[in-house]
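The freezer alarm interrupted the setup, so I double-checked each line after restarting. Inputs confirmed:
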Amino acid sequence: MVRSDVQLMLGVKQGDEVSFELLLQRYRRPLCHFLNRMVRDSAQAEDLAQEVFLRVYRARREYEPSAKFTTWLFRIATNLALNSLRDGRHRQSEVSLDAPAQTQDGSEMKLDVPDGAPVVEQQLVERDRLDVIRRAIFNLPEKQRAAVLLHKYQELDYDEIARILGCSVSALKSLLFRAYEALRLELAPLVAPESSGPGPGGTLEGKRS
Amino acid sequence: MNCERIESELIGYMDGRATVRERREVEQHLSACAACRARVEGLRGAWSLLDEAPATEPSAWFDARLRQRIAAEPAPGLMSRLAAWVPRPRLALATLALVAVGCWAALTPRPNLPSPVALNEQEEFRMIKNMQVLENYEVLKDLDALNELQGN
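Predicted 3D structure, all chains:
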């Protein structure tokens, strides 16, 4: 029988190392994916994911199953990611918006501010479409980004995401709408390639639902 | 329901989490509003594009590194071990207080009384000293006689 997260965490509380190992197996990938999309730096994301597990381990004796385990886990992860992004902003405050930066794959990236479809059209010509999608996610304000990642990729329910982000469910719905609306506008040329000329992939029809 | 009011229900409508009533309201609005129908199409397109963006997988040494970091964690302190052992904090506090009182009593200096060992030595010495007298039967006999005299 598959043990629930809470059962495993209660096992960890009693000092059972196998339970911790099982939680690690269960959440290592989703946590790394989430953090990677949040901070867009794989090494930093992995460090943060380790820190999340370490904090869970440190807090094991005080654990009480008052909330869902995933709420606790992703709340720690979200807070760590937001703090890390804030620290990074302080360090990079001297960097000009036109200065070259490194993308995830190491190539040079321009920190330009997206201002609508024409910029995206140029990006289509210059870069890989997947990078455009990744950047569209990353360009969202941090809280909107966290909301989309928890909703779209982790498929958590509204109540849980609202608890993680510390807002009401109605505020979350509004936050999600603004986030998806921004993505719709930024990704419009990819969604409707006939209006922006042929993209590098040229097979967008099949992707539309 | 107007376009602005429908906005917060659109995501729930698209991900299937809207209630029957919310869903009906959105459908009614969409049937009458071409702009919102186009918006929903665009949102669905962006939504499905997000599935294409791959995420970076954790490295092969993720678990090993984490185990190393956990092994480097300091062992839980005496207090936390005690707290884990005794589930009731009041009992833990009472035990701690008892131990503290015991320590205080043991470490407090006492007045200079002769130690039990010294006392035993003195008694022993006196006994050994008297043994000669006891062994000397004649002396003892004389002593008894003297007692009798005193008693009379």
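Quick read of the result. Chain A touches chain B through 47 residues (CB under 8 Å).
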